[in-house]
Write a structure and sequence with these properties.
- It is a single chain.
- With 156 residues, the protein is α+β, with helices and mostly antiparallel strands.
- Helices cover 33% and strands 37% of the residues.
- The chain contains four helices and nine strands, in the order E-H-E-H-E-E-E-E-E-H-E-E-H.
- A hairpin with a 2-residue loop joins strand 4 and strand 5.
- The chain is globular.
């Protein structure tokens, strides 16, 4: 039986949930340099503008910003460089098939430590229309008001 490792969240992409319907998620490893891992341990990462691309059967994450490690001097890499994601071949084939369908894209959802390994959760996503975003916002507001009313009834 495998040992359960704790997970520590490094970065979260809340904008992806606002802009897209997430149909499926995948956990991928990421190919990093040593100074990048040290910088991630300090929490220096942003995936707000990041996107995932597939090139020649390999999956890459682009525009994921990892601040240079302050004590890394010459070993620091470019903060916005293209990084390879590690997935199984059948997962890559599934992503390729789905992205060829109209309206599907791949977005990074979160970056986290799983034990000592850095993992990226990517999602197979469809874009939301403006009316979908408004409907989600209305549901969120209704839920918030219902919770507020419930809280007031408990106190009073």
């Amino acid at each position: 039986m495998a040992k359960e490792h704790g997970t520590k969240l490094i970065a979260n992409n809340k904008k992806a949930y606002h802009d897209y319907f997430i149909d499926d998620t995948f956990e991928a490893g990421i190919e990093l340099a040593g100074t990048e891992v040290k910088s991630l341990r300090q929490g220096n990462c942003s995936i707000k503008e990041a996107y995932v691309s597939i090139d020649k059967g390999e999956v890459y994450i682009n525009k994921m910003h990892i601040n240079p490690y302050e004590k890394g001097n010459i070993f620091n890499k470019d903060p916005l460089r293209k990084r390879k994601l590690l997935l199984h071949k059948y997962e890559i084939n599934r992503l390729i098939g789905k992205t060829k369908e109209k309206g599907y894209t791949i977005v990074p959802l979160k970056v986290y430590f799983s034990g000592s390994h850095v993992k990226v959760e990517i999602g197979l996503a469809r874009g939301k229309k403006l009316y979908d975003k408004r409907a989600d916002l209305m549901k969120k507001n209704q839920k918030r008001e219902a919770e507020r009313d419930y809280k007031v009834k408990l106190k009073g």
